[in-house]
Each structure stands twice: as structure tokens, then as C-alpha cells.
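Project outcomes to date are best conveyed with an example. Our students and postdoctoral researchers have been running inverse folding experiments weekly, and each run begins with a structure described purely in C-alpha cells. The record below, which covers 152 residues, was selected by the lab manager from last quarter's runs and is presented without edits.
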């Protein structure tokens, strides 16, 4: 299994070397979500929390805390990504990489996994509630199935 830093570094390298910390967080979230669907397993073991501005991997946040922009040198150079894992991340970057951090945050705010984890939490309030991998799998699998059905 990859480490969250491997995923973050790969995303940053494939995206020109740097991006906002918020955008990186959302792309890591979507990489985890689609790994559950495409690969049938988690991409990384770290939990994802439903923060006010969208999903956040706390251990990744600890690495870039206080930085608006993050670059690939912020993470150790060792990589444990397989070809299948990089293919999943590449698919995420092809689908979501052109969106801004704000667009990605807004997108997550309208999706069941984040909404479920934030249930009962006032808008804008702090929360460390975990986004359930089972809910992520169920939601994004439905999205995938609907897209496949629409292509038929």
C-alpha cells in the first residue's frame, strides 16, 4: 500500500511541481475514492476527515501546515506506487486536475461522503469526523455505474 506522501508527491510531479495545499488535499481524496472503485482497495491507509472546506488527510496537512502552495520537494523521494496506483491517480488528474481548489471543495460539499460525515455539524464549524471509506466506495461506484450506463 502506498503512503499518502507518495500519492501527494506523484500528484504534484504530474501537475507541474506545485499547487495549493487545498487542491492537493482534494486530489488525494479523489485518488482514494477512485482507488476504492477501480482497484477494490484503499490507495493509502490514512483516514480522511470532513473539514469545513472539504476532505482533508490530517497526516498530509501536518506535512504542509502553514503553506498555501506545496511542491513535490515537501515529501520524501521514496515511492511505493504501483503501475495500477499511478494509473488510478492519472485518471483522477485527467478528470479533476483542471478544476481549482475552490471548485474541488464545492464539488465535495455536494457529495454524499462529505455530507454524511458532516451531518449535524454547523456549516463552517470545525470537525474531525472521518469520511467513511465504505460510503466513498458506495457513492463513487454509483457514479461510475451511471457513467458506464450512459455510454451504452
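After processing, the design step wrote out the following sequence:
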Amino acid at each position: 500500500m502506498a503512503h499518502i506522501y507518495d500519492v501527494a508527491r506523484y500528484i504534484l510531479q504530474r501537475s507541474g511541481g506545485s499547487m495549493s495545499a487545498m487542491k492537493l488535499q482534494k486530489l488525494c481524496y479523489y485518488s482514494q475514492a477512485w482507488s476504492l472503485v477501480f482497484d477494490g482497495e484503499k490507495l493509502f491507509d490514512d483516514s480522511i476527515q470532513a473539514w469545513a472546506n472539504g476532505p482533508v488527510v490530517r497526516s498530509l496537512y501536518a506535512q504542509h501546515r502553514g503553506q498555501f502552495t506545496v511542491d513535490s520537494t515537501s515529501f520524501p523521494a521514496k515511492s511505493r506506487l504501483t503501475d495500477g496506483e499511478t494509473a488510478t491517480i492519472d485518471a483522477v488528474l485527467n478528470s479533476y486536475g483542471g478544476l481549482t481548489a475552490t471548485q474541488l471543495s464545492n464539488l465535495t460539499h455536494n457529495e454524499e461522503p462529505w455530507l454524511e460525515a458532516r451531518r449535524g455539524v454547523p456549516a463552517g464549524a470545525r470537525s474531525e469526523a472521518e469520511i467513511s471509506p465504505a460510503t466513498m466506495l458506495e457513492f463513487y461506484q454509483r457514479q461510475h455505474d451511471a457513467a458506464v450506463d450512459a455510454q451504452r
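The chain is about 55% helix and 10% strand. Strands lie at 18-20, 49-51, 54-56, 69-71. The training component of this project remains on track.
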